[in-house]
Amino acid sequence: MGLFEWVDVPVVAAPMAGGASTPELVAAVNRAGGLGFLACGYAASEDMIAEIGATRTATDRPFGVNLFVPGQDTADAQAVADYAERIAPEAERLGAELGDPDWGDHDYPAKLAALIEDPVAVAGFTFGCPEPADIRALRRGGTMVVVTVTTAGEAKMAVEAGADALVVQGTEAGGHQGSFEDTYERTTPLLDLLAEVGAAVDTPLIAAGGIADPAGARRMLSAGATAVQLGTAFLRTPESGASQTHKDALADPLFTGTAVTRAFSGRRARSLVNRFLRTHDGIAPGAYPQIHHLTGPLRAAAARAGDADALHLWAGTGYRSAAECPAADIVAAIAEIV
């Protein structure tokens, strides 16, 4: 089966992990003819299974599930402890306690096993490539495997492992950079990266990063992408699970740009530039998911308090085009140009 034989519009909706993705959003995108994705990178296996069940109730069309491939624990414990001491006043101000900076695999083995046992249409992987044997097991169950890549080298590795398609993520993308290794910041613009990856592999490519309107989608499809993936564009929709603080910040004129930082999670991610980012950028160690767990309660408290200056405001460079409208309208606008 081809990549989009059962999808009417070549639009993949994959908002960042952390609450923005919901069964309601997946269903709305599916009804409009696109392909919705559940972002289950952080979810425990039982929560992922429950979300899959809720999504199957909400839509009878194919959808995808995205997981984070765990890396090795290479963090400097002292650097993590020093960062915890630095940001402790931030948590205290919000009436929160810092979380335990533990390493973990986000329940990856159990989630992978669940997807093999009870297949979904598409399984997406970020932060690395699954083992070839796991890809074969997923494909035997009828699941299409998609891997996010940020370099031509990563693309070759994913194709050799058996991936059916690649999400090509340019530097413009909001949220975490999906690189296999977080050793350096990915700075290649999407159009350039799409050309590099397209020259390196003969595999369907899904363009991702900064695409927020029909004009952006047209450019990527004309450049050889089989489909486009949108994340930030869906954050302000009523179906999105993003906090109201996050939604409002995307339209707030006080936030004038984005930057890539490790300050919130210990892994490079693009966020709106706010006070927390300006204060702590460049100081947080490369320690994921330790810093993610450390700052989690602080960030949750900031969202509840409406404090956008202490919240991880994941956003791609096209964030100003994110509209407060139904998700179906976003898909429909792109459908008109393809």
Automatic annotation (TrEMBL):
Keyword set, alphabetical order: Detoxification, Flavoprotein, FMN, Monooxygenase, Oxidoreductase
CDD domains given in the database record: NPD_like
The record lists the catalysed reaction(s) as: 3 propionate 3-nitronate + 3 O2 + H2O = 3 3-oxopropanoate + 2 nitrate + nitrite + H2O2 + 3 H(+)
KW Oxidoreductase (keyword) present:
yes
A Gene Ontology molecular function term for this protein is: monooxygenase activity
InterPro entries for the chain? Aldolase_TIM (IPR013785), Dihydroorotate_DH_CS (IPR001295), NMO (IPR004136)
What are its cofactors?
FMN
For this protein, the record's SUPFAM superfamilies field holds: Inosine monophosphate dehydrogenase (IMPDH) (SSF51412)
Name the family.
Belongs to the nitronate monooxygenase family. NMO class I subfamily.
PANTHER family on file:
NITRONATE MONOOXYGENASE-RELATED (PTHR42747:SF3)
What protein am I looking at? Answer: Propionate 3-nitronate monooxygenase
Q: Which organism is it from?
A: Nocardiopsis sediminis
